[in-house]
Amino acid sequence: MEIMKNRSYLRKLRIESNLKNYDEMKKHFKWSKFKKEIHWMEKDKLNTAVNSVDKHIGTVRENKVALIWEGEKGEEKKFTFREIYELSNRFANVLKKFKIKKGQRVFVLLQRVPELYYSHLGSIKYGAVAGTMFPAFGPDAIYDRLENSEAVALITDSELVKRVDEVKKKLPKLKHIFVIDKPKGKEIDFHKEMEKASEHFKPKALNPEDFAFMLYTSGTTGKPKGVLHAHRSALYEHLTAKWVLDIHDTDVYWCTADPGWVTGIAYGILGSWSNGATSLVYAGRFDAEKWYELIQKYSVTIWYTAPTAVRLLMGAGEETAKKFDLTSLRHLCSVGEPLNPEPIKWSLKVFGLPFHDNFWQTETGGIVIANYPSMKIKAGSMGKPFPGIHAAIVDDEGKELTAGKEGNLALKPPWPGLMKTIWKQKKRFDKYFLNKWYLTGDKAMKDSEGYFWFVGRGDDIIKTSGERVGPFEVESALISHPSVLEAGVIGKPDALKGEIIKAFVVLRKGVTPSDALKNELQMHVKKNYAGHAYPREIEFIEELPKTQSGKILRRVLKAKESGLDLGDTSTFAK
Ligand code: AMP
């Protein structure tokens, strides 16, 4: 009961939100005024990793816990800012020893273990370009990313390295594979090297436009795109974490996203630590009771998660939540897919707090539209543009539309978080821009009070459990099976996951459709492409609808799936 009182007391302290008056801030906002919010090493030189961790050394935060890590079996480790600083220094020295050059790509393929966090920071600190991959990826997806980025080093573990082994021969640039447990053959013993390395490192002071990190994300067509972010994004991550997530350095903050995705980097490492928060990382899978137990055990104050997780919690029922003391929570945020009013109402009832929806993309480098703690929430809306961001709804020519009209969600460049480029694909980068607007690829509507409402993707990208999946990559994985002639993949609306992946498959001549084959195809995609992005539904069809130039008309497959009108069919193949 005593604990209960203490925690309620925490909430009653009513910490004032960092952004007190959205409208005022928006009116007078200038990026130059906020430059001083982050750490500059010399005039106009910075390093994102230094800004997130090193700047706390020599301050009251030096010995404060930066990372609380809990493993799947309940193991617990805690690291102070000083420890993360020293470990990332050591890893930077390891990169130096192996003669990695500034700007070369160093990738991590790990579960959510502490090594991931400090080696990623060490790579950035060193001046390399740090990349991460979602650990559910199979050999083909891993190959695409390592091959395109021409990564020279990889940090992984003895289980995940097996997937790399399958494609290693085709990756001549990948010279150094560090394994954090049981290295074999030519693999480098990560921890042995860490022990030998010095804990002192003089980080590189870099230009704001220098590359800091990259993440691969899916487009509608072609292989995944390597989105490059520059060191200047530190300012954007910092300020959005401060004003949208409302991070104070007294907070215990839990971002449930995996660092294989951008949220796990920008708000699971960089922006959150830049604001001095203690971050919780849980390496295990979703489990409602376990999640509540973690919030209770560590007195989590800010929680950043995705709508699918909220729906799963709703499914577990209010009684489950009631078994735990969750009164430490003071601010809840959600991202990645539309957040309907229902989960907001539910969380208000169960936690006494609403989830605040916000919108952004791998390419935008940080939250661009949000519901702020000090602003009225319109349930179901993504909120209003971040101060310093000009968002609008434009038509297909890039002309701004008036309030109430549906159109393309566009943002006016530049802003510090905007990606620097798409790695080795300038044409794909240029395609994002129209008539001086950056196009998100999403359809939305702005109401008369300036709130933005998500309508849907303007293209065929699938969002399943908040994770972005390109239909082309799943189709390619299906086609690599000897029984498949062609495949068309779409997102099918799903009450829990937002969308599930559905594949329409044309079999080769002589192959008999069966449930066993469906199963086999699912396993094939899981094994070769990704464990999380396999088609949960497969339908065998005779022929795929295509344009006259031979492109699959996924729009028609979608319409067929939902029993809708087939739309404009004038471009169909005759
Ligand atoms: P990613 O780059 O993987 O973060 O995916 C970005 C895409 O996720 C956006 O273009 C949207 O389609 C979707 N998305 C992100 N946040 C939201 C949100 N709050 N509401 C609706 N869709 C969202």
Which features would summarize this protein structure in a list?
27 strands; binds adenosine monophosphate; Rossmann fold; disordered N terminus; alpha/beta; nine-stranded mixed β-sheet; 574 residues; 2 domains; GMP Synthetase, Chain A, domain 3
Can you describe this structure?
This protein is an alpha/beta fold. The protein has 2 domains: 2-445, Rossmann fold (3-Layer(aba) Sandwich); 459-562, ANL, C-terminal domain (GMP Synthetase, Chain A, domain 3), CATH 3.30.300.30. The chain has 19 helices and 27 strands. A 9-stranded mixed beta sheet has the order 2-1-11-10-12-13-14-15-16, sandwiched between helices. Strands 7-6-5-3-4-8-9-19 form an 8-stranded mixed beta sheet, sandwiched between helices. Strands 17, 18, 20, 21 and 22 form a 5-stranded antiparallel beta sheet that branches. The termini are far apart. Mean pLDDT is 95; it is low at 1-6.
